[in-house]
Specification:
Order of helices and strands of chain B: EEEEEEEEEEEEEE
Distance between the termini of chain A: 23 Å
Number of helices of chain B: 0
Strand content of chain A: over 45%
Helix content of chain B: under 10%
Number of helices of chain A: 1
Structural class of chain B: mainly beta
Shape of chain A: elongated
Strand content of chain B: over 45%
Structural class of chain A: mainly beta
Largest sheet of chain B: 6 strands, antiparallel
Number of strands of chain B: 14
Oligomer: heterodimer
Largest sheet of chain A: 5 strands, antiparallel
Strand order of the largest sheet of chain B: 4-5-6-7-8-9
Largest interface: A-B, 41 and 40 residues
Shape of chain B: elongated
Order of helices and strands of chain A: EEEEEEEEHE
Radius of gyration of chain A: 16 Å
Distance between the termini of chain B: 70 Å
Chain lengths: 118, 157
């Protein structure tokens, strides 16, 4: 299996039947790349809903404000326009993309950082 | 950075693209002992993030020591051409002429959660003493430097 495989956790599910049917669920995304030295994976919290023939996915980045601990690297997501995360959800793929600043203070000092694109 | 349920062409589920068209960067390691001028890029290496640099570094004012494919990884390993803690020097560097002071091995490794440099070399005294002895210099990111040797042994006769 390749690097960074995505784990998809569903924590809550809501179904609505009636004149307007809808489906909503929330949970967490985890990747084996986004983990610290102890193996603790940083969750990306999401909430998804399906109505009017389309999916809407929102990311709650409240737990990411201090950055993502990658062990000896730190990844700080940054805003792209007015949003931090771009979500793709269709029949073929679910993906979360974001830009960020990567630093390795313990290895490369405080003055080094590298910006990664979405 | 993109995390996806679909693997990319490399078979990875995470794709990382660093900003393109950056000029050569200069940054310092080990409290300025190693001064790197380097191009760099970032990629995923077996579930860890790696920053790879290629360029040259300056060790105690010895200029243009070439360094290719030096990787700093988010799991705390430092790797050169696929070998951890390997010698950064392609050939010994002469700090004093006539091989009076030579560094022939320079390594970077993580120790106590911080980057540490170790340099092994030798000092040679000229004739008529004509003695040679090895030494090790280690330095950490806080600038603490420890030197052991060289210990010369002279015949009393």
């Amino acid at each position: 299996m390749g690097n960074g495989a995505l784990e998809f956790f569903v924590r809550g599910l809501e179904l609505e039947f009636g004149q307007t049917n809808s489906l909503a669920f929330s949970g967490q995304l985890k990747s084996d790349l986004l983990q610290n030295n102890a193996g603790d994976k940083t969750p990306i919290h999401y909430a998804a809903s399906y109505s009017a023939d389309q999916w809407n996915v929102a990311i709650d980045d409240g737990n990411l404000s201090s950055g993502i601990d990658l062990g000896y690297a730190e990844l700080e997501p940054i805003q792209n326009g007015n949003q931090t995360f771009t979500v793709t959800m269709d029949q073929d793929e679910f993906a979360v993309a974001f830009a960020g600043i990567i630093s390795m203070p313990e290895l490369l000092g405080d003055g080094f950082s590298l910006e990664v694109q979405q | 950075m993109k995390v996806s349920t679909l693997a990319n062409v490399d078979g990875d589920y995470v794709t990382v693209d660093a900003q393109q068209n950056l000029p050569d960067q200069n940054f310092q390691l080990i409290n300025g002992i190693l001064d790197l001028t380097s191009t760099r890029f970032i990629f995923i290496f077996y579930k860890v993030l790696a920053i790879q640099t290629s360029g040259s570094f300056d060790f105690y004012n010895q200029q243009d020591i070439s360094s290719q494919n030096l990787q700093f990884r988010s799991d705390g390993t430092v790797d050169l051409d696929g070998v951890s803690a390997s010698n950064l020097l392609g050939e010994p560097i002469e700090l004093l002429s006539d091989s009076s002071l030579v560094i022939d091995d320079l390594t970077l490794a993580i120790e106590n959660s911080a980057l540490k440099m170790s340099a092994d070399g030798f000092a040679k005294l000229p004739n008529p003493l004509d003695e040679r002895a090895g030494f090790t210099v280690s330095a950490d990111t806080d600038g603490n430097i420890d030197v052991s040797g060289p210990n010369f042994v002279f015949d009393e006769g």
